[in-house]
Design brief:
Length: about 120
């Protein structure tokens, strides 16, 4: 198992939990209302779950699926970071979105390189 596999499993698993919390947690519902975007709560949760599954499944032999998942999650977390900045949230509140944007951007880059090198 490589470090890329470990990072993919970590990120994928986190997003399965984040996505489920978007769909079922009252805390996340309150957060999205605070952000002024409650209409995006279910979409965000669904995309997080799909991205998490794509990373978990893709890291074993399907680099294209892992790339799609990582790139989608990176974009989602970039948008989340922008929302956090606009809300003037603290660094501590904003840091998970920034960290996951960077992590998934890195994973997307690695998987794109694998696709280019292997032709898959």
């Amino acid at each position: 198992m490589t470090i890329i596999d470990v990072l993919s499993i970590f990120s994928g698993t986190c997003f399965l939990f984040y996505g489920a919390s978007c769909l079922f947690s009252t805390h996340m519902s309150k957060e999205f209302k605070r952000f002024g975007i409650p209409q995006f709560l279910k979409l965000t949760g669904t995309l997080q779950i799909l991205g998490g599954f794509a990373l978990l499944i893709g890291c074993w032999e399907i680099p294209l699926l892992a790339f799609i998942g990582a790139a989608g999650l990176a974009l989602l977390m970039l948008l989340g970071s922008v929302v956090r900045i606009k809300m003037k949230d603290s660094f501590l509140q904003s840091s998970p979105a920034f960290i996951f944007a960077i992590l998934n951007s890195y994973l997307a880059y690695v998987y794109s390189t694998m696709i280019w090198l292997t032709g898959q």
